[in-house]
Amino acid sequence: MFFKESTLERANRLFDSGHVLQAIQLLTEQNRQAASTEVEQRLVEMRHQGFFHLAHDAGLGCWPPELVESPYPAGAIPAVSRSEFSAQTLKDGIIGHGSLIVRQLLTPVQVKRMVETIDNAILAYDAGPGETQLDDRQVWYSPLQPCSENGPQKIARKWVRDGGGILAADSPRAVFNLTEILGQVGVLSVLGDYLGERPALSVKKTTLRRVPVTSSSGWHQDGAFLGPDIRTVNLWIALSDCGVDAPSMDMVPKRLDSIVPTGTGQASFSWSLDDPAVMAAAGDTPPVRLTFKAGDAILFDELNLHRTAIDSQMSRDRYAIEAWFFAPSHYPLNQLPILC
Fold first, then answer.
1. How many angstroms separate the CA atoms of 154 and 20, rounded?
2. Has residue 84 been placed in a domain?
């Protein structure tokens, strides 16, 4: 008797035979046609475990990328439109000024899709099994377990939630929606060109955020706890207007070439800096408070000095996505990789 092979069975067979990217593409196309909890959960697993089944080239020989001269004025963060966003403008921004703003990277429809994704994922996390009004809690919240190839890792889920977020990798629908949208707007292609290899997301550092005005964050550089010899870009996308009546970011608008000593003076945490240390590092380019419209984005790396910006005049929660990408050849495995 002949039994027709299902798409999921075929994808699993491809994956097991080493055709990781083909398996992911097959399930992605299937889910575009008909969204499935089982498919989306399997996709997250494949994106994580599949990282260890692929050979990762050495990447660019020189890092960080060399920049002869930035076309943008000093002391400010350059901003470009989505059509101007490229590996070159990204290099101009990050290497020349510490970051790059991309206006209207996401469309209003894409913003709405991700806001609904965040609300549903947080609802599913907070409600617990059997207590949510969602039709299928597992598609919105299903904690990813590190694969055996990666080895065991502690994941600070409660700490992330207490800060107004939830890990994207713990929401299969969120991973699907996010990777789809980043592909549609060209982010994955630009990051691949900039890093010199297909980027991989971080489970621990890619977060869906709904930040209340009661939140707080000290000045910091993510490189203070990500470790040495990494090649990374953080994509931070505003999903609501922020910087006036909703939390935004304060940022030093220049490139720093090293990690500033942390935990000194009146710093709140061992990994953070106090105001005098920030002003000393900033020199003649004092910090600026950033304002964004929903759909705007900013990209920076582990050397960028920033903090969450909150004051007493703010009254609205801020929706955002923080997505950290690493070059696979220089991936810190304690961050738990996710193929894009």
1. 26
2. yes
Cα distances (Å, whole numbers) of residue 281 to 126, 140, 260, 285: 40, 41, 7, 9
Domain count, the chain: 1
Q: What is the pLDDT of residues 11-33, one digit of tens each?
A: 999 999 999 999 999 999 999 99
Taking the C-alpha atoms of residue 28 and residue 37, their distance in angstroms, rounded to an integer, is 12
Give tens-digit pLDDT for 98-107: 999 999 999 9
Question: Residues 136-195: pLDDT tens digits?
Answer: 788 899 999 999 999 889 999 999 999 999 999 999 999 999 999 999 999 999 999 999
Q: Is residue 38 part of a domain?
A: no
Residue 207 phi, psi (nearest 5)? -135, 140
- What is the pLDDT of the chain when averaged over all its residues? 94
**55-60: long-range pairs with CB below 8 Å, 24+:** 56/197, 56/328, 56/329, 56/331, 57/197, 57/329, 58/329, 59/195, 59/196, 59/197, 59/231, 59/327, 59/328, 59/329, 59/330, 60/195, 60/196, 60/197, 60/231, 60/327
Task: Count CB neighbours of 293 within 10 A.
Answer: 13
Q: Name the token pair of 300.
A: 């920076």
User: What CATH number is given to the structural domain containing 298?
Assistant: 2.60.120.620
Specify if 34 maps to a domain: no
Here the tokens at position 8 are: 């999921």
Tens digit of pLDDT for each residue in 248-260? 999 999 999 999 9
Residue 54 resides in a domain: no
**pTM for this predicted structure:** 0.95
**Beta carbons within 8 Å of 151's beta carbon, 6+ residues apart:** 333
CA–CA separation, 244 vs 309, rounded Å?
Answer: 10
Tokens 């590092």 belong to 281
What is the domain extent for residue 214? 61-339
